Amino acid sequence: MITSKRFGGALPVQEGRYHLFVSPVCPWCRRVSIARRILGLEEAISISESTGKGKDGFLFEGEDGFDPILRVRTARELYRRQEDWEVGEATSVPALVDLSAPNTPIVANESADLLIDLATVWRPLHKEGAPDLYPEKEREKLAGLDEQIHQNVNSQFYPIAHREDEEQAQAAIEKICAYLHRVDPLLAQSTYLTGEQVRGSDIRLFTTLEGLASVVPFASTLRGAFADTPNVARYFRHLCAQDGWVSDLEAKVLHLN
Q1: What is the distance between the alpha carbons of residues 243 and 182, in angstroms, rounded to a whole number?
Q2: Closest CA to 79 of 45, 108, 106
Q3: pLDDT exceeds 60 at position 99
Q4: 42: three-class secondary structure by DSSP
Q5: Strand, coil or helix: 166
Q6: Are residues 153 and 230 in the same domain?
Q7: Which phi-psi region, left, alpha or beta, contains residue 21 (left: φ > 0; alpha: ψ -120 to 50)?
Q8: Which residues on neighbouring strands pair with residue 52, listed in sequence order?
């Protein structure tokens, strides 16, 4: 079974050592991609972005049909290379591989941990002026906020996006809308969820809202929710306009304008 490791412990921070596999349509991937961009880690951590999805998971096809770094075509092929991968185990992204180790193993594939680690342990490689997404004195508070966002927004994405059960999808929609109504008064008082400085919690909320904005028919429901929560709507538009928050590829595949 693949074990997702943490930086600062099992994994050393080293420029050029790691390569990240992501999909621009996945909100869990986008939280890591946004952190990589706004923290200035593009040169430190190289990246492959999925070109689509097939029966073997996300596709990573370069000009010749293979990912140019690891010469794989799909997420499943990437996982099959791993000694500790078991048949039937998920082949999820994001997936961070160690290019310096034999067989280029997947060393981390938990997006929440990667977001925090890029924001904290990778600080020596941040660009000048990079935001402090998880200040040490705020981490306990932010951990609680992250959990609220996960329960009320992040975890509700799949029932809506896949719509395998209409009752579950409707319940998920109602839960998200209720949470947006809860945070709307807070955002009337500040630019971001906890004040005037952006935090990792903002990334976690934004990427799911961004994904839901591209899901039909929820997009129209979200527009209605934004009409009822004008401060959330302003917050979302503000983040969309910030450098590094939406790449050209993400805007294209999510049909954002």
Answers
A1: 27
A2: 106
A3: yes
A4: coil
A5: helix
A6: yes
A7: beta
A8: 59
Joined together, the tokens standing for residue 229 give 């929560």
Residue 100 sits in the same domain as residue 142 = no
Determine the number of helices (DSSP H) and then strands (DSSP E) in the chain: 10, 6
At 83, the amino acid letter reads E
Q: What's 227's DSSP letter?
A: H
Range of the domain at 34: 18-125
**HSE-CB of 29 using CA atoms within 13 angstroms:** 21
CATH number at residue 196: 1.20.1050.10
If we measure between CA atoms, which residue out of 102, 101, 105, 80 comes closest to residue 91? Answer: 80
> What pLDDT does residue 62 have?
80
Task: Band the pLDDT of 158: cuts 50, 70, 90.
Answer: confident
Q: How far is CA 239 from CA 14, 123, 232, 243, in A?
A: 29, 22, 11, 9
Query: Measured between alpha carbons, how far is 146 from 36 in angstroms, rounded to an integer?
Result: 19
